[in-house]
Amino acid sequence: MKLYIKEYISYIDDGEIDIKKELKQKYKLDTRRQDRFIYLAVYGGQLLKQKIEIKEDDELYVTSGVGNAEIVQKTNTYMYKENQPLKLFDFINLLGNTTSYYIAKSLGIKGKNIFQISDNFTYTNTLISAYASILNSKKDVIICTIDLVSSPEEITKRVMGVKKSCEVQSSVNYQKLSLSKDGAIGMIEFGLDEETTCKAEDKPFETYTSYVINRALRDKKDLLHVEIFEDKKRTIKVKSFK
Amino acid sequence: MVNILSCEINCAKSLTKRALEDGTEIPYFSLAEKIEQNQDEIYEAIKKVVLKVLPEEREKTALLVGTSLVDWNLVDAINACAYEQKELYSSKKRSIDSYAKDLSCEFGLSSFTMSINTACTSSANALLEAKNLINAGVVEYAIVIGVEIFSPVMSSGFYSMDLLSSSKPQPFGKNRDGLVLGEGVGAILLGKDKSPWELVGGFSNCNSQTITSVSSSGDECVEVMHNALKNCAKLAEDITTLKAHATGSQANDEAEMNAIKKVFKKEPNIITLKQHIGHTIGASGVLEIAYMLQNVKFKNDENIMCNYFGFGGNNISLILRKHR
């Protein structure tokens, strides 16, 4: 399977930028009723929008390794620890596709919009789904990968299944992909998995592969990336058009 | 051509009541065998329906789940370390997709698993994604699961929005007063083998006026239905039966009825199912199609449109065809 990369952005959230404030002041977006996970996802979308035209019928696939743990923690605390009633917009934000709704709204996308999680290779499985979809629709597709470290960090580490000593990071990555080579800055080849006896290193966030691909594009380098999950590996080839 | 090769459901047979966390009782379509909100019981419930639709060529079979279930792996991780009581650290990757991954390992399926979370359209979207995967040659078969188990959190959310009926669901009824939630698990096996039922295709988008509803004009529903017809190279008059989303809520039913009037000059036969099994939220895509194929008689050459409209602006129309 092969797709052309039209544009990309990567953002590691080190806390230096007040993202909510940035969304309101710089991008003039309504941030009411949203939370940190949604802010980060929408912010990444705005960075992509600055670099490339987003079309109304572009397809949008959003994936995450952990999901919005903070909203689950918030509702869990309200309902089961403090015996408080569930708040309306906390309920709405519990739904995975609420995040993809706000991304779509901020980018002006009215096409297909899928929020999905895969236990194994969540980014590459999303890439495969997106490829299969646009093979049929002939549209372009935007893939968003988002991971937010919650507090305490141990929640994120437990869900990711990494060592307790692993340093985890919040990150959002976007790629606009197409079947067409026109205007592409790179190409990505990928497939289903093969057996391996190699062991994976812990990653700072579950959707790290999308970040690694974007970094290769930034550096205008070709890349052979092997992603490992348990006893399976996926090989991804990136060709940068220099 | 991607066909529905088999389907299986475990859904409620009658209307009962369930209690929310504060003790409030709501009408609810409960499974006969009560399933607790824990990983093992949900896994076993899904496994029972998957076992009944397993194809022979398992290694070429993907498994996709559509659900709006709260991810209990997250809740477990939160309970293990966010409050006073701490559990021993465990590092084993878990997510909402772990049900699919574990089943895939247990039955030797393809390692392609995916869990789609787009509220009420989740498993309908999973069906369309699975069809695309088969058409693209990524896999030869796909088992698509729809699962929704009673959740006090989800039910409280609908209750707090004042969307629940106090009595019984009356989809498209004049006196409808809200929806009644339900639980269930359904599985549909898709593949290219011969079958009387084809999943012709459909269209999925996110264009609703607000995050919780479509506009009363139904224009968003019209758009998705028109595009589904276009994608499947069908005309409105080719549709003989419409399985409506029809939740029984005042506003959404009105929007869908308005949309049907705009799309069809002559209304097809309209089926509503939520009075029988409740609104099974993320599971409704698979469950309602499987329920319909098992309980409704269709003639040969019928084209059936199935609508699903959900929170988060997600809308989808699928088209099925009964072959000779």
Structural description of this entry:
- The complex is a heterodimer of chains A (242) and B (324).
- Chain A is of the alpha+beta class and 242 residues long.
- Chain A has a single domain, classed as Peroxisomal Thiolase, Chain A, domain 1 (3-Layer(aba) Sandwich), CATH 3.40.47.
- Helix content of chain A is 37%, strand content 25%.
- In chain A, strands 1, 2, 3, 4, 5, 6, 7, 8 and 9 form a nine-stranded mixed beta sheet that branches.
- Chain A is globular and about 55 Å long.
- The two termini of chain A are 22 Å apart.
- With 324 residues, chain B is of the alpha/beta class.
- Chain B folds into two domains: 3-191, Peroxisomal Thiolase, Chain A, domain 1; 197-322, Peroxisomal Thiolase, Chain A, domain 1 (3-Layer(aba) Sandwich), CATH 3.40.47.
- Chain B is built from nine helices and twelve strands.
- Chain B has helices spanning 39-51, 72-81, 98-107, 122-135, 152-160, 219-231, 250-263, 274-277, 284-295; strands at residues 3-11, 15-19, 25-29, 61-66, 113-116, 141-148, 184-191, 197-206, 239-243, 269-271, 303-309, 314-322.
- In chain B, the strands form two sheets. A ten-stranded mixed beta sheet of chain B has the order 5-4-6-7-1-8-12-11-9-10, sandwiched between helices. A two-stranded antiparallel sheet of chain B has the order 2-3.
- In chain B, helix 6 crosses helix 7.
- Chain B is globular.
- Chain B starts with a strand and ends with a strand.
- At the A-B interface, helix 3, helix 4, helix 5, strand 3 and helix 6 of A face helix 2, helix 3, strand 5, helix 4 and helix 5 of B.
- Strand 3 of chain A pairs antiparallel with strand 5 (113-116) of chain B.
